Amino acid sequence: MFYSSSIEISRSALAHNIRFLKAQLKPGTRFSSVIKGNAYGHGIEEFGQLAYTCGVDHFSVFSADEAHRLHQVLANKATIMIMGYLDDDELSWALAHDIEFYVFSIERLEQAAKVARSLQKPARVHLDLETGMNRIGLEAKEVAYATELILNQPGAFEVMGVSTHFAGAESSENHDRVTAQLDRYRRTVRSLQQKGLQIKSLHTACSAAVMAYPETHLDMVRVGIMQYGFWPSPEIYQRYMGVSTDRTDPLKRLINWKSHVMSLKLVPAGEFIGYGKSFQASSDMLIAAIPVGYAWGYSRSLSNQGQVLVRSHRAPVVGIVNMNVLMVDVTGIPDVSLKDEVILLGKQGNEHITVASFSELSTQLNYELLTRLPMNIPRIIVD
Ligand SMILES: *Cc1c(COP(=O)(O)O)cnc(C)c1O
């Protein structure tokens, strides 16, 4: 193969996770698949098409470039909603292709009205409310003004939704803040409806809120991390396992990141391995070189820390992770040969390398590690 590693994405695992997640919702609650950050590292194009075959028809992205990538593979088969960055230059592309987008400034709304008039097509907007996260939502005054703007220009807008985002639903530490946000959201929505604004859908919940705050589900939920098989936090996982009768994790990971043994070498006791003196062979060692390094997303902080799987055994990383190569100790593993499959993340036989172990060691969050998997590693769909 051309590439020194590849990332397999499991169709059956995704279908399983989506079934589990939909079972947490009331019938009729819409499921939006959040695929920002290159589908949390899974690849927007590959993951988007796969999710579509699993029955997903609504996608949330962060920016216009992500919307564009998904639109290229799904065209008008699914709804695409931009939750963040959209430049004035892309507004007419978005409108022309029925891409929905968040509005969190009056300028955005005024620009959208202009484009809507020139294209003679309504802008499909979601009013994103500031309820306490203090990031990007519309403030109370802006909401009032936006409502007037919309009501005064019939035909220019379709209010596809009113949204907000919780500041940390994955930890009960934030319980008061989250419930206050929901209260504030509800009050604002009621006042908008009283003014006569037609709102197609109310949505607030991310993965953690889906699990911990069922009252936030409303008309639609926006689920990211859990569809990929990861829990938003250990707390949300333990909370679920505490009430579940089944003792096994209901989520399955989609990713298997694979490479292979590029070179094997016997290193005599006492020699240092790799750059510098961070690792010294305490006995004669068999060392395998793997053609993946920090340029391929394998963090340098996993030097002398990480583990990979070879022939269903764990092999520890020895020495410093290089730009394109890392070395592992395969001394005790029977029959290791050149070209043997190596698992950097995922499973082989009964062994797993979890993102959690991986990211604990490198002190990265699940979310961060996944989204940092380089775009140019090929994603391959498997069953
Ligand atoms: C990322 C994001 C989500 C999904 O969050 P998860 O924790 O991955 O489920 C939902 N809504 C917004 C606005 C987001 O930015």
TrEMBL record:
Catalysed reaction, written as an equation: L-alanine = D-alanine
One Pfam family of this chain: Ala_racemase_N
Superkingdom, natural source: Bacteria
Required cofactor names: pyridoxal 5'-phosphate
Active site per database record: K36, Y275
Occurrences of domain Alanine racemase C-terminal (ranges): 254-382
Stated name of the protein: Alanine racemase
Species: Pontibacter amylolyticus
